[in-house]
Amino acid sequence: MDARNRRVGHHEHMKPHIKHAMLTASLVLVGASAVGCGMGGPPSDASEKEFCTAVNSLFDDIDLAEEPSQKETVAAVKKWGKEMEKVGTPKGLSDEGRKGFEVMVEEMAKIEDDATAKELEEIDKDLSKSDNEAVDVFDDYMTETCSLEEPEAP
Fold first, then answer.
1. Please, what is the end-to-end C-alpha distance for the chain in angstroms?
2. pTM given for the model
3. Are 72 and 62 contacting, i.e. CB atoms less than 8 angstroms apart?
4. Do 99 and 134 form a contact (C-beta atoms < 8 A)?
């Protein structure tokens, strides 16, 4: 089973609207195609608790009482990317995992506010092999380090 199927399959038990949000986030993770190599960047010394709180913050703005609109989903994914960039990664993340994180953050920042589901699904069409591998390493780290529990419905 490839990494993309593991990401989607991992959340099969979730309600459809939660699965949609997680699928969207997973597609964005997979869809990164380049990473900038500038000075600074997101922190690399976050605690695991801070990191995992940021990982799970994807659900903070999703109304569980009803399925979110595409606009709400895009806004939540973009906000999540900004939160992940602000918090950064723990020290124990490998260089390749860190590259995957940076690719993810950069690509999330590029998502247009009016992006369609199809655009999000096709975001990975230009993904290089090395970026795909780096994002998979980061995704595996994120999944192994943080419990991606489904939030409780009100």
1. 34
2. 0.70
3. yes
4. yes
